[in-house]
Amino acid sequence: MPRRKPEDISTAGQDSFLDVVTNIVGILIILVMVVGGRVQKIVLTAAPQAKARAVELERELVELDQSATMMESEVADLAEQARTVAAAAAFAGESRMALATAVAAAKVEVARRKESADKDRVAAAEAAARRKQLEAEIERCTLEAEGIAHAPATTKEVLAYPTPIARTVTGEELHFQIDQGRIAYIPLVELFELAKTQTRRHSGSISSMAQRIETVGPVQDFSLDYVIEVKIDQARGQVLVRSREWVVRPSGPGIGETREEALQPQSRFRRVLADVRPDTTVTLWCYPDSFEEFRAVREELHRLGIPTAGRPMPEGAPIGGSTDGSKSVVQ
Questions:
Q1: Which of 117, 274, 284, 330 has the fewest CB atoms within 10 Å, i.e. is most exposed?
Q2: DSSP-assigned letters across all residues of 126-190
Q3: Residue spans per domain, the chain
Q4: Is the model's pLDDT at 287 over the cut of 90?
Q5: pLDDT at residue 165, as a whole number
């Protein structure tokens, strides 16, 4: 069998390469055609869609423009409404202030009227109470008048005091203390006599006597404190020694006699009055707790025809006098 001749390797390789290149070129041509066809199709089909999209976008733009216009109009309306609301709020604030002022004034007026009504009620209650009191007083007086009308006639001595014409005491004067409901004789004459005697006995130089305080007593439950005053009369060449101020002090509380004891026939009060001369005045130094005793003693002195002077004394104040003081006044 005859052998086949070996083929040339280079020739076979070239043919294969050409075939491959041809195939690739054909494939590329086919791809170009396919791609071109597709591109044409895309361009042709995309144009209407873009136009529709543009129209749609234009419509949306018009709608947005209209919406913006409407919103601007609404914003203007809202701004106008805001101005209206602000004006209304300002007016409401002013109205609120006016209302608050009116309410405060109304409260003040209500309080004033309430206070006036309370005063009227209190006055009415007081008037009612006063009316009841007067009615009770009228009823009591009526009953007393009826009792007096049916009672037997009686005679009662009434003391009548003379018209009170005041005059200063210039003659002799007797003094009584009325304190704690008790009447005590103040022996001022006797105490001053002792003071004169003591001053003469203790007198020395004028300088030692000036502004000196002395004490005498007790005499009948009273002591006397006095201040010595020395005056020099150069024209006459005389030295005057006298008491400038004096105070009487009781020896203790509760001295003297009660009203009942003093008005008895043999009392000390009666014994002191036994030697009274017609021109002698009795001065009663009375403290606030003894006005009843003062009236009883004054009535008795008036009944006896003895001039009487009253000296009301504050509670706890001492009985005293001075060269600058006032004299008793008798009525």
A1: 274
A2: HHHHHHHHHHHHHHHHHHHHHHHHHSPP-------PPP---EE--S-EEEEEEETTEEEEE-HHH
A3: 13-131, 167-203+251-330
A4: yes
A5: 43
